[in-house]
Design a protein that fits this description.
Helix content of chain C: 25-40%
CATH architecture of the largest domain in chain C: Roll
Shape of chain A: globular
Shape of chain C: globular
Number of domains of chain C: 2
Structural class of chain A: alpha+beta
Largest interface: A-C, 54 and 54 residues
Strand content of chain C: 15-25%
CATH topology of the largest domain in chain C: Ubiquitin-like (UB roll)
Strand order of the largest sheet of chain A: 3-6-1-14-11-12-13
Number of domains of chain A: 4
Helix content of chain A: 25-40%
Number of strands of chain A: 31
Chains: A alpha+beta (791), B alpha+beta (287), C alpha+beta (159)
Largest sheet of chain C: 5 strands, mixed
Strand order of the largest sheet of chain C: 2-1-5-3-4
Oligomer: heterotrimer
Number of helices of chain A: 23
Largest sheet of chain A: 7 strands, mixed
CATH class of the largest domain in chain A: Alpha Beta
Strand content of chain A: 15-25%
Chain lengths: 791, 287, 159
């Protein structure tokens, strides 16, 4: 009798107890004996030559042990070189032949600063308080350079250059065409052209970044604890930068207080703190404060689309043209990643024959942009979904209806878009029912009763956003499953958790794959010392990649254990069943041989141990996916707009989601809800604002506004999960999807509410002042139109 | 973000506080609730050399009705008191309503009424409420006390009429007319945020059933609480509340910020003024 | 600056220490007393992760100096329930999946514990007001609100 599978069950999390007791161990909780603390002097200017950095004043301050300027840092370690970012798979090169420029980043600059918040000098002292005191004694002389903040201005011929040798500020550029876009636009029944801008915002996890580095005084091994999503990548990077053999350097991501992509990058502070620990032969810690986080942790979302759609009389979209300008900030540390994601998610769930896309990612004197929950998808979906609504208005068709007409149908799966994905594979939507998701979303939101409450003063609007999401991107993830003689199962994986509940969900997968009890499984990750290879937890990949690696490794362990158990019981392996961690012969469920005993049988002390068998009952696996597997979603926002004050109230928000086979429904919904709220934050409250001098105006939580519990709408989640045919578990990634829809859905809803007033929405966030601007502008335009008509 | 060093005193007598405040050789600040001061210190935007903590001074903790029927609130009284103390909730409901918009329980249980008044963020609710309710500010120094009407106390952004060595000892609110109607309306980005625009309104009706007096004070529309005299007079002369709102819009001269443009604040001031007057009138039993 | 002696009750125990006036209460709790369950997220009084109870009231410990709790009673997440047990608010967070990374969680629990101790029958709006003094980036708050309601039901006579 097979036990009920763990996969699919809402198993309560194993992570919670110690965290609830306050026994979490986040980076700042780690304080080796004698640990020093670092503080960074950061550039107050967006673009300037560094004439002189004089740290001698700091060296004399109480409690200060060392101070480093750019020259000293450069003598100890080279600049940060992002080699991986330069790699362009051959099929991508053939398809779009991209220009990819990735410049090295100095750990501390010697020549120029290019964004406000860039670290310029480092002080190491006995406490953070004393280190900050000492920062004020550092003397830096700058020579102003002209500043450019807007990416479109950065493309102008006379724009200030961040990399003078380049001759321009273009870091990434590529074009793509398929079909006959010019012909389609020429012959279309209707075309629309619009300019949409996705504004800049960021992850802002409640735990900021942090790193503790310690060199073992006895064997000189370096251990780094970092609030990181990618400890193995950090290990590889630091090994290269500091000249360590990878096995003499260990990076541990302990408990991490949220990451959302932002903690998947390597930063100058990571290298500098490790460097300081080695030079000073004392542990060194740096914890980012919130002002530093807002200025110098990676940002996201800023993109401008000049987008056109051509459609037939029946509303079928014949062609899409888009000229996209993406703001990279001062450096492109990850190369193609985000702009290319925007490209490959532009067509979304729609069947569009002709396409003409131009993508440019531009350097500006602003914070570095990098993946942040959605990583290029939310901004592209904002443009496309807004464009579709505009097309719907032009055609006089209901926006949801227009979407359904254009969606790839379930019977068209697998559907090739003609684009090449970032991993080099042809982009093929493997599974999903997009029209089904749309219908489900409409049903779930049940907007009719809310719409009926609309009045002239308080107008109700409904907005949709549909998207596809490539999840589970490679190149690989690693896992190892080991059974201990007592029956305890230890699973090591190369990813890391920042709250996604891996220790629970991966244990569920293990329990089913291995045939053991959930309680007997312990999952360990986030540690390059735990398993030698790994890639990390980003890009909605852990369930897909680590999950399948674990399942494979578990299957191998199971097979090997069955062989040994069969020997022990002197029967054929085919006559054995494994359930709840014990073998029993088929037909004799009473006879149990615990898996732990099988593991113990392999002990080298056992004279009867099978010859040639390794001492451990364990197996490792590297899982490399063929390509991404497609999750998808349709979001619907219902808003009430107070026309006189511009206040937008989010009444209800519905999500119909396809995340493949669900491992833990509660955890899955928690991920979606969290993503949705970050998306709502971006749509209504959060904006990183730079002034023309490149000063970050929103430098604290007093101005960078995160939503609170009072800003949550009624949230309705519905699932229409189609298992992925691309991996044995049938899972798809789901960490990011929630964040992809809200900016578009809410923008569409606000415009829908104010349509009769002539409002067209092109850019968020939709705070009351901006909404009133829209209403006022529409009223003025309306009056002008009337006046022109009359004259 | 760690604060710069300072010397700390927590005296238990008021005259010690005033003596410490009178030290003109050092930058001395008072620490009451700390909800405004400490963030500034953590950012090192403020770096007082001496911090005088009021927490031990029992003489500052009073909330009482004076012989003249005024509500007297001492410098040590927390904002949460405005929501809980029956003397306030029953006798000065406008104050309670405004206080509901201040931050969150964690802020109100620590932040003080007088601290917020002396800090004078012009988007904060309490300064506007003080002007609306015709409060009197009792100011003390080591040489004595003086009083100032609220309207003369608030000068500009984060600037009040306190000389070096002076502190806001107490704020006094005159007795409210029993059948006066009141209202407080605010637009904020999120619950508990500082107001983008806020309006406090008081109206009274005469024997003829018409508005006999009106008081309209706004926050968020300039460097100090704005008293809309034109609109008040118009309403008493029989103008509609919408018309009063238009007069408010015409009179204010706000500055814009990233959260709300000047044009928005101007518009919103008029909208909220109209709504606040209407609600106040309803409460006066004549709506 | 010279250190000052302070004495306080922390989670029911008498503690004394010598501290610099500018030492923030959050740093005192975390680094001097080594109780790291209270977390720091912003140091300007917005995120609420540093919330502890001072004389029963929820306060942002990043906006207080250690010297200000001389003579006071302070309660942190470590003291909310007896060793090895989960109090009703903690239990509710677990059951309602009200936490993911756990970083903001202790702060929420302290505020809710204070509220529900004082008013076990607190209204939905009072609960929302208390929760809104905290930021969470993982959960989207939906399950936190549910956890709060669950805790209220249990603390309000097990209704």
């Amino acid at each position: 009798m097979a036990p009920e599978p763990l996969i699919g069950r809402a198993v309560p999390r194993v992570e919670d107890e110690r965290l609830l007791w306050g026994r979490g161990r986040y980076v700042d909780d780690i304080h080796p004996e004698g640990c020093l603390e670092a503080a960074f002097l950061r550039s107050p200017l967006a673009h300037a030559r560094v004439i002189r950095v004089d740290v001698t004043g700091a060296l004399g301050a109480p409690g200060v042990v060392a101070a480093f300027d750019g020259a000293q840092a450069a003598a100890l370690a080279g600049p940060l070189v992002f080699d991986m970012a330069r790699i362009v798979p051959e099929p991508v090169r053939r398809s779009v032949d991209p220009l990819v420029r990735v410049q090295p980043m100095p750990s501390l600059p010697t020549e120029r600063v290019t964004y406000v918040g860039q670290p310029v000098a480092m002080v190491i002292a006995e406490s953070r308080y004393l280190a900050e005191d000492a920062l004020q004694l550092i003397d830096v002389e700058y020579e102003d350079l002209p500043v450019v903040v807007d990416p479109e201005l950065a493309l102008e011929p006379d724009a200030p250059l961040l990399e003078p040798e380049w001759g321009d500020n273009v870091a990434i550029a590529f074009n793509f065409r398929k079909g006959d876009p010019d012909g389609a636009f020429a012959n279309a029944h209707v075309t629309i052209e619009e300019r949409f801008r996705s504004h800049r915002y960021m992850a802002a996890p409640i735990e900021t970044r942090g790193v503790v580095a310690s060199v073992d005084p006895f064997d000189s091994r370096l251990t780094v604890w970092a609030s990181s999503q990618t400890p193995h990548l950090m290990r590889d990077f630091l090994a290269g930068a500091l000249g360590y053999a990878p096995d003499r350097l260990r990076v541990v991501a302990p408990d991490v207080g949220g990451g959302f992509g932002m903690k998947g990058s390597i930063y100058p502070e990571d290298v500098l703190v490790a460097l300081a620990a080695r030079e000073l032969r004392r542990p060194v810690k740096w914890v980012e404060d919130r002002a530093e986080d807002l200025a110098s942790s990676t940002h996201g979302r800023e993109q401008v689309h000049q987008i056109e759609l051509a459609a037939g009389a029946d509303g079928r979209i014949l062609a899409l043209r888009d000229d996209v300008v993406h703001n990279s900030g001062a450096f492109t540390t990850l190369g193609l990643v985000v702009p290319y994601n925007s490209f490959t998610h532009l067509l979304g769930p729609y069947d569009i024959e002709s396409v003409d896309i131009r993508m440019r990612a531009v350097l500006t004197n602003t914070g570095v942009t990098a993946p942040f929950r959605g990583a290029g998808r939310p901004e592209t979906v904002f443009a496309v979904e807004r464009a579709i609504d505009r097309l719907a208005r032009e055609l006089g068709v209901d926006p949801a209806e227009l979407r359904e007409r254009n969606m790839v149908r379930a019977d068209q799966m697998p559907y090739a878009t003609g684009l090449v994905y970032r991993d080099g594979a042809d982009q093929v939507y493997d599974s999903g029912d997009y029209p089904g998701l749309l219908r489900k979303a409409r049903e779930t939101v049940d907007a009719g009763e809310l719409r009926a409450q609309s009045t002239d003063e308080r107008r109700i609007g409904v907005g949709y956003a549909a998207y596809t999401e490539g999840t589970g991107v490679g190149p690989f993830e690693s896992a190892r499953v080991r059974v201990e003689p007592g029956g305890h199962v230890v699973v090591s994986y190369g990813g890391a958790s920042q709250g996604q509940g891996h220790r629970t969900t991966l244990a569920q997968i293990t329990a089913d794959a291995l045939g053991v009890r959930f309680e007997d499984v312990e999952v360990r990750g986030g540690d390059s010392g735990e398993i030698p290879q790994g890639f990390g937890t980003i890009a909605s990949r852990t369930l897909v990649l680590a999950g399948n690696a674990i399942a494979e490794a578990a299957a191998e362990v199971r097979e090997r254990a069955a062989r040994i158990a069969a020997e022990m019981l002197e029967i054929s392996p085919d006559d054995l069943e494994l359930a709840d961690g014990a073998f029993s012969p088929k037909g004799s469920p009473g006879t149990k041989l615990p898996l732990g005993d099988v593991a113990g049988f392999l002990s080298p002390f056992n004279p009867a141990r099978p010859k040639g068998e390794p001492a451990e009952l364990a197996a490792g696996s590297i899982y490399r996916p063929s390509s991404v597997t497609y999750a998808a979603g349709v979001h619907v926002a219902v808003v009430a707009v107070d026309v006189a004050t511009g206040m937008v109230e989010l009444l209800r928000y519905a999500v119909a989601h396809d995340c493949g086979r669900v491992v833990n429904p509660t955890i899955a919904d928690g991920q979606i809800a969290g993503g949705v709220m970050q998306g709502i934050g971006g749509a209504l409250y959060e904006e990183l604002v730079y002034d023309d001098a490149g000063q970050l105006v929103t430098g604290s939580f007093l101005d960078y506004l995160l939503p609170t519990a009072s800003e949550t709408p009624e949230l309705r989640l519905a699932h229409m999960d189609v298992p992925s045919p691309l991996n044995p578990l049938g899972v798809k990634g789901l960490g990011e999807g929630g964040a992809i829809g809200p900016p578009a859905a809410i923008a569409n809803a606000v415009e829908d509410a104010l349509l009769d007033l002539g409002v067209v929405v092109r850019e968020g966030p939709f705070g009351p002042s901006r909404v009133r601007d829209l209403i006022r502008e529409a009223a003025t335009a309306g009056r002008d139109k009337v006046n022109t008509v009359g004259s | 973000m760690k604060p710069a060093p300072f010397a700390y005193h927590a005296p238990d007598q008021l005259d010690e506080v005033l003596a410490l405040l009178g030290d003109h050789d050092h930058e001395v600040r008072l620490l009451a609730g700390g909800q405004s001061l400490v963030p500034m210190m953590n950012f090192r935007l403020a770096a007082p050399e001496v911090l005088v903590d009021l927490r031990r001074v029992e003489a500052l903790r009073h909330v009482r009705r004076t012989d003249e029927g005024e509500l007297a609130i001492g410098a040590g009284v927390r904002q949460s008191t405005l929501l809980r103390e029956p003397l306030v909730t029953e006798g000065w409901p406008l104050l309670t309503e405004g206080a509901r918009h201040i931050g969150h329980p964690q802020v109100r249980s620590r932040g003080t009424v007088c601290g917020s008044l002396a800090h004078h963020d012009p988007t904060a609710e309490l300064p506007a409420l003080a002007v609306a309710l015709d409060a009197r500010m009792v100011i003390a120094s080591s040489t004595g006390t003086r009083e100032l009407p609220a309207d003369e106390f608030f000068l500009s952004y984060y600037t009040v009429a306190l000389e070096p060595g002076e502190m806001l000892l107490e704020v006094r609110f005159p007795q409210c007319t029993p059948h006066a109607g009141w209202s407080f309306k605010e637009v904020a980005r999120r619950r508990g945020d500082f107001a983008l625009v806020g309006v406090a309104a008081l109206v009274e009706s005469g024997d003829d059933g018409e508005v006999s007096s009106a008081r309209l004070v706004l926050c968020g529309v300039g460097e100090r609480p704005f008293r809309a005299l034109d609109a008040e007079q118009a309403v008493v002369a029989g103008a509609s509340f919408e018309e009063a709102g238009r007069l408010v819009s015409a009179a204010v001269q706000p500055t814009g910020s990233i959260h709300a443009s000047a044009e928005y604040r101007r518009e919103c001031a008029g909208v909220l003024a109209g709504r606040a007057l209407a609600e106040a009138w309803e409460r006066a039993g004549r709506g | 600056m010279a250190e000052l002696d302070i004495r306080l009750t922390l989670n029911g125990e008498e503690r004394s220490a010598s501290v610099e006036p500018r030492l923030l209460l959050s740093d005192f709790i975390r680094h001097s007393l080594r109780l790291t369950g209270t977390h720091v997220g912003c140091e300007h009084g917005v995120c609420g992760a540093c919330t502890v109870l001072v004389d029963g009231q929820p306060q942002r410990s990043c906006l207080m100096f250690a010297v200000q709790v001389d003579g006071a009673s302070v309660e942190t997440i470590e003291g909310v329930a007896p060793e090895g047990e989960l109090g009703p608010v903690q239990q509710a967070f677990h059951e309602a999946h009200g936490m993911q990374c756990g970083f903001c969680t202790p702060g929420f629990i302290m505020s809710l514990t204070a509220l529900l101790r004082e008013s076990p029958g607190a209204s939905d709006d009072e609960i929302l007001d208390s929760l809104s003094g905290h930021l969470c980036r993982c959960t989207g708050y939906v399950n936190i609100i549910e956890a709060a309601h669950l805790a209220r039901a249990r603390m309000n006579g097990g209704a």
